[in-house]
Amino acid sequence: MPVIAKELAEVSIRRLTHTHNVSGEPYKAVHRVGGGAGLYLQCLQPSDSRKDGAKSWLYRMELTTEQALQKGVISRNSGNLQEAERVYRAILQSEPLHPYANHQK
Question: Whole-prediction pTM value?
Answer without folding.
Answer: 0.46
